[in-house]
Amino acid sequence: MVLVYFCITFIVFAKSTIAQEPDDIVVYTAREIITLDEDRPLVEAIAVQGDRIIATGTLNEVRQFLAGRSLTISSRFNDLVIIPGLINQHEHAWLASLLFIANILSIEDWVLPDKTISRAADASEYRQRLRTLVRQHADSNQVFYTWGYHQLFHGELSRADLDAISNTIPIVVLQRSIHEQIHNTAALEFFGIDQSLIDSAPESVRDQTNLAEGHFWEQGQSLIVPRVFANLFHPERYLPALEQLEKYWHAAGTTLVAEPGGIVSPALITAQNQVLGDENTPFRMYYIADGRSFINYDSTREVITETEKMYATAQGMTQFIPKQVKLFADGAMFSQLMQMSEGYLDGHHGEWLMDPEIFESAFQIYWDAGYQIHVHQNGDAGLDMVLENLETNMNRNPRQDHRTVIVHFGFSRPDQVSRLKELGAIVSANPFYPIVLADRYSEVGIGPERSHEMVRLGDLVRADILFSLHADTPMASGQPLRLMSDAINRITVNGNLPAPSQRISPARALRAVTLDAAYSLRMEEEVGSIEPGKLANFTVLLENPLETTPKDIGDIAIWGTVHEGRILPLANSATSE
User: Which of 165, 161, 158 is nearest to 144 (CA)?
Assistant: First the structure.
């Protein structure tokens, strides 16, 4: 049965492609090849012509099927393991580049190519290290940026606290979620942020600012982001950071990156095109339009027209995925600004990133235009709002295979999992949330019952709901193997295991960073598995992630990648045949 399927697949593809491709055919063998092709999960050899896979099977089968053709048999991977090319399903290049721009003082360790930065475990350590870093800041005319602060770990931080550290150096603290900023007085003056600016904003924006504290969050950031980011992401900083980020993602075995809902900034996109659009980039990067940026146009036609104008701004190895859009429900997971149906233990409240009536309008506009909609959601009340809109539009204007994606999936309830299944939604989850947050959120704000069940992947498996895993770097490490490890093991930074039933198998985790990630982007016909007809995208490992001890999966060494037929070893990998 398997052999018959292989023959049919190969012959059909050969008729449509081989005759059109003048490239040599290279047949790669390996110690193990995991395909994620249901009919042929394991093979001995892969035949590649140009950028496409044209055959898989045993070496003898491939030779037989390609009889009469000129073949090169490559044994360079004979001691290695080939898996489908890993996919970073949800990233933001500008956001991830902060790892190489800002001073990192975070709630977890960060292992970067050239250094390891240990976590700041508590308020005392955070403030001591912040003072040291500011003291080492060379130029008082340049803004000092730091990322990673979290109030529940590091204590409250205000404008006055930062003024006490320096009243001359502009200091900007980017909260761990990037959904909040805290400025000292020198920074506010540097950027021209004053009460008149705040007074000019709509009420929902003003309500999420506190000038006296130097604090701006969620919608309140929209006032200051254009000023701050123009400085933070100046080309002198941003271009070198993007070059480092490219190496970081490639070192993680990445062959495709998607950026849902990136900032609509011609300057940032131009910079990203300059670095990531280059033909030598080891992966392709796909943008998904940010619907918030277009929803204020007067007519539905203008909303869609302006959205689609963005497509032309990407170039080379970067491009927009047409007919897909990102919308936003509730606030940040790392800020405890999610909308929670049972509220918070300390009485504070969550926030909306899009006011519900605006979200409702945007969802309907893009739904009726046939768009696949990706929605940022973190709290269970936020998920209620999203599901209500999905159900309303399914009843009003039914669509098959809409693939609405629930993005992040921080908190949810069992009844919502059932509703997700009924409505045909899928999930893109961040499995690092429980690792870094479950212990502390059990103590503050949320409580153990809800915190232990965050990111309930096990329930998704049992409900047969398709899901992918993502990092949203630096919300998690941009390394798909580490995301797999987080989802499989679910061990917190303090060594605890919250909700063992929400763990998933290595096989399901591998699908979540390959084939199911491709499905969430409507790219499963092109990438995600090793099958004839698909792009020749592979990640090459030293060990098999399906057989390695689960706790060691995140540490599997990566040889390099094959991207659209290009062999791309890492700098420290042997390249000889």
Answer: 165
CATH of the domain at 155: 3.10.310.70
Q: What phi and psi values does residue 411 have, to the nearest 5 degrees?
A: -115, 140
Q: What is the pTM of this model?
A: 0.93
Task: Please give the full DSSP string across 321-382, using - where no structure is assigned.
Answer: EEEEEEEE-B--TTTT-S--TT--TTS----BSS-HHHHHHHHHHHHHTT-EEEEEE-SHHH
Spatial CA neighbour of 67 closest among 28, 105, 27, 16:
27
Structural domain boundaries enclosing 139 = 102-232
Give the lowest-confidence range in 262-271, 432-441, 447-456.
Answer: 262-271
Residues 59 and 200 occupy one common structural domain:
no
Q: Any long-range contacts for 164-167 (C-beta under 8 Å, 24+ apart)?
A: 165/127, 165/130, 165/131, 165/134, 166/134
**CA nearest neighbour of 509 among 474, 475, 556:** 556
- Inside any domain, residue 92: no
**Within-domain flag for 370:** yes
Q: Do 295 and 419 belong to one domain?
A: yes
Which residue's structure tokens are 């909700």? 499
Question: CA–CA separation, 257 vs 261, rounded Å?
Answer: 13
What is the pairing mode between strands 115-117 and 171-175?
unpaired
Confirm if 311 and 320 have CB atoms less than 8 A apart: yes
Mean pLDDT of 69-96: 98
Contact indicator for 75, 29 with CB cutoff of 8 Å: yes
CATH number for position 14: 2.30.40.10
Give 561's strand partners: 539, 568
Tell whether 465 is covered by a domain.
yes
